[in-house]
Amino acid sequence: MDKEKRKHAVPMPKQKVEDRIHHFNEVALGYSAEQAVTEAQRCIQCPKPECIQGCPVEVDIPAFIKEIREKNFDEAVRRIKEDNSLPAICGRVCPQETQCQKFCVLGKKGEPMAIGRLERFVADYERQKGVAVQPRSKSSTRGKVAVVGSGPAGLTAAADLAKLGHEVVIFEALHAPGGVLVYGIPEFRLPKKIVQAEVDYIKKLGVDVKNDHMIGRLHTIDELFERGFDALFIGTGAGLPRFMKIPGENSGGIYSANEFLIRVNLMKAYMFPEYDTPIRVGKKVAVIGGGNSAMDSARSALRLGAEEIWIVYRRSRKEMPTRIEEVENAEEEGIKFKFLATPVRFLGDESGWVKGMECISMRLGEPDESGRRRPIPIEDSEFVMDVDTVVIAIGQTPNPMIQRTTKGLKTTRWGTIVVNERTGKTSKKGVYAGGDVVSGAATVISAMGAGKRAARSIHKLLMRKKKHAQSLRRK
Question: Structure pTM?
Answer without folding.
Answer: 0.93
